[in-house]
Design goal:
Radius of gyration: 18 Å
Helix content: 25-40%
CATH architecture of the largest domain: 3-Layer(aba) Sandwich
Shape: globular
Number of strands: 15
Strand order of the largest sheet: 1-2-10-15-14-11-12
CATH superfamily of the largest domain: Stage V sporulation protein AD
CATH class of the largest domain: Alpha Beta
Structural class: alpha/beta
Strand content: 15-25%
Order of helices and strands: EEEEHEHEHEHEEEHEHEHEHEHE
Largest sheet: 7 strands, mixed
CATH topology of the largest domain: Peroxisomal Thiolase, Chain A, domain 1
Number of helices: 9
């Protein structure tokens, strides 16, 4: 078998998997933002008929999974694996959603990098001949995440201006070994990097070094020029983290500023008072399955690099005074 490893951290797909469908479900705040027209479903409220936000998140994720399968017009039983993750207590949203579908399930945790991670691993399964269809999914809910990682929203605590707003949303992509759509051409698996940030509100700063490291390794491993992509998209650093990564790349002589942005910056308008922008597993998931896929399918953009960024802290580690290690995983999508 031909070696598919490229450089230190990257792989390229010899038979690139195809994105045959994507489906997004978002909350009301996200549905009021600038990307509102690209989402498949916008919830009327953050409960969606459930008794708790946790139940709502699992319901959103299941809805996005079934939506992607239905949109692709393939039988449920033709999907070989679900790869999914979320932020909530041992990824229970993903576990419960997968329970409802009854398909073989691989649970993942990469914090906000989970959507990119699921696509990278899904691509490896298909290109390696272990699957023909893989469902890749991720979700988050603002209120479940705040209750778990910081303070319950009911308390009305003041958030610092550099804090990000966890997105209420779920996104799913169905990858296949054949079909029409953007092709998954490569992936770069990140390293865990920790620069000592301890403020759990300042995730953009914590994640920036890991994301910059993955971007630099991606371009070096695959020997791609800075202008190779029409769009380089992080998910999700927010305003502060995006600025930091831009500066780090500049110091390393990689200039992608003209094509560089962030899912957390894209998903909200400044007047929505989300401070530094969006975050959460669902942020990059819904931006990718909504706005990015539609722009690729229309021909507006043809080559996209998504770098999912994850802050790998937990409530336990934060209470014990630990710093926040972070990671970035990258996948490239190309319309050919």
């Amino acid at each position: 078998m031909k070696n598919k490893k490229a450089g230190n951290q990257s792989v390229f797909f010899q038979n690139p998997p195809v994105v045959i469908s994507g489906y997004s479900v978002v909350g009301p705040k996200e549905g009021q933002g600038p990307l509102r027209d690209s989402f498949d479903v916008i919830l009327k409220d953050t409960y969606d008929g459930e008794k708790s936000w946790e139940k709502t998140e699992a319901k959103m994720l299941e809805r996005s999974m079934r939506g992607a399968i239905d949109k692709a017009q393939v039988p449920l039983e033709s999907v070989d694996y679900i790869l999914a993750g979320d932020l909530l207590n041992q990824i229970i949203s993903s576990n419960f959603a997968a329970r409802q579908l009854g398909l073989p399930f691989i649970g993942l945790y990469g914090a906000c990098s989970t959507m990119a991670l699921s696509l990278a691993l899904g691509g490896m399964l298909i290109d390696g001949g272990y699957a023909s269809k893989v469902l890749c999914s991720a979700s988050s809910h603002h209120d479940t995440a705040e209750r778990q990682y910081r303070l319950p929203t009911e308390q009305g605590n003041q958030r610092p201006m550099y804090a990000q707003w966890t997105v209420t949303g779920a996104g799913s992509i169905l990858l296949a070994d054949a079909g029409n759509g953007p092709k998954l051409t490569s992936a770069t698996i990140g390293r865990v990097i920790d620069y000592g940030e301890t403020d759990t509100n300042n995730m953009g700063a914590a994640m920036a070094p890991a994301v910059a490291d993955t971007i630099l390794n991606h371009f070096q491993d695959l020997n791609r020029p800075p202008d190779y992509y029409d769009l380089v998209l992080t998910g999700d650093l927010g305003v502060l983290g995006l600025q930091l990564v831009t500066e780090l790349l500049k110091r390393s002589n990689l200039n992608i500023r003209n094509t560089f942005t962030d899912c957390g910056v894209m998903i909200f308008d400044t007047e929505q008072d989300t401070h530094a922008g969006g975050s959460g597993c669902g942020c990059s998931a819904v931006v990718l399955t909504g706005n990015i896929l539609s722009r690729m399918q229309s021909g507006e953009i043809k080559k996209v690099l998504l770098i999912g960024s994850g802050s790998l802290h937990s409530p336990a580690s934060a209470l014990q005074g630990e710093s926040m290690p972070a990671i970035g995983h990258a996948i490239s999508l190309e319309m050919q």
